[in-house]
Design brief:
Layout lengths: L1 H5 L7 H13 L2 H8 L3 H15 L4 E4 L2 E4 L1 H21 L11 E7 L1 H18 L3 E6 L6 H5 L5 E4 L8 E15 L10 H6 L1 E7 L3 E2 L1 H8 L5 E6 L5 H5 L5 E5 L11 E4 L6 E9 L6 H19 L2
Parallel strand pairs: 3-4, 3-5, 7-9, 7-10
Antiparallel strand pairs: 1-2, 5-12, 6-10, 6-11, 6-12, 7-8
């Protein structure tokens, strides 16, 4: 009770909330300082102030780094909600992208990241110069990523299932067989396809592509000689080899642009791609504006030959 009487709510402001979230997410004072654009000593000073306000150590040493206490994790969750509320307060009324000062975090794996986010950033730069686009890996998207505000938007073929999670399909892509035309011809038959050596993507920890699982359950057994952790790892192994890679066809426009491709000689599904967000952002004018900008980018990116 004594501690509660000493709590001065006027000492708590947006900077302290941002600081708490930054240190929890970065897992270090150095990382938080870099993200916030301040010195490490400034972060340490503000952390001491926040400890005094909350009456909790917030972070404790673990090896060479620090870990958040249970109290800090709980407070960070509340801080994200408060920061979102503060942002909506500032942007109430007509939304003006030119006045938007924020870091917007998008989760995406390498295919959708490289296809969509560079052109999105180019489009946003002129309209919202105060916006910082932060990109993190989505892996298998979880409900917690969006519920706990680790990111504000996910781009993935795998929407998590939750009553508070919303999604919209951005596009569908056909799979293609990629190969080095200087080393081999395209496989024209199922027999030639199955006789070849293949390379595929296996995301950590050991998560196969949906396509590979789909084909395996239908008896299409390929011989994988190489597995890499992302689509960016495919080209160096395919060049100068007989390897085949079955991958989204839109990779032809960027990561696999110097390789040849052909239709897959076995039945294949299409690959859908969704943008996914939490319902708290459904009517947020800033979030709605950014989703619309992403959809505008998709049209150009998907039609690129």
């Amino acid at each position: 009770m004594e501690r509660m009487r000493k709590f001065d709510y006027s000492d708590l402001d947006g900077r302290l909330l941002q600081l708490l979230v930054a240190v929890v997410e970065a897992g270090s004072v150095t990382g938080a300082a870099q993200r916030l654009g301040v010195t490490q000593s400034a972060v340490s000073h503000l952390l001491d102030k926040l400890r005094g306000i909350t009456g909790d150590p917030l972070f404790v040493k673990s090896g060479r780094g620090i870990v958040a206490t249970a109290r800090a994790e709980s407070l960070a969750l509340q801080a994200r909600e408060l920061l979102a509320t503060m942002e909506r307060f500032c942007l109430s009324g007509e939304f003006d992208p030119a006045r938007w000062q924020t870091t917007f975090t998008v989760a995406a794996n390498d295919f959708q990241r490289d296809l969509l986010l560079p052109p999105l950033m180019a489009r946003l730069r002129s309209q919202a110069p105060g916006l910082v686009l932060r990109v993190i890996s989505s892996g298998i998207p979880s409900l917690e990523m969006l519920r706990h505000e680790h990111c504000q938007l996910v781009i993935s073929p795998r929407p998590p299932d939750g009553a508070d999670i919303l999604q919209k399909r951005l596009f569908e892509d056909d799979y293609r067989v990629f190969y080095d035309p200087a080393q081999r011809e395209a496989p024209q038959t199922k027999a030639a396809y199955l006789a070849a050596e293949h390379i595929t993507v296996v995301y950590e920890p050991r998560r196969a592509l949906d396509l590979d699982q789909w084909l395996a359950t239908r008896g299409v057994q390929r011989r994988f000689s190489v597995m890499v952790p992302g689509f960016a790892g495919l080209p160096p192994f395919i060049r100068g080899s007989q390897l085949l890679a079955t991958a989204p066809g839109l990779l032809q426009s960027h990561l696999l642009r110097d390789l040849a491709s052909a239709k897959v000689p076995v039945p294949c599904p299409t690959m859908p791609m969704y943008m996914i967000w939490h319902m708290r952002h459904q009517h947020d004018p800033a979030h709605r504006w950014l989703r619309a900008e992403l959809e505008a980018v998709v049209g150009a990116a998907v039609s690129t030959p």
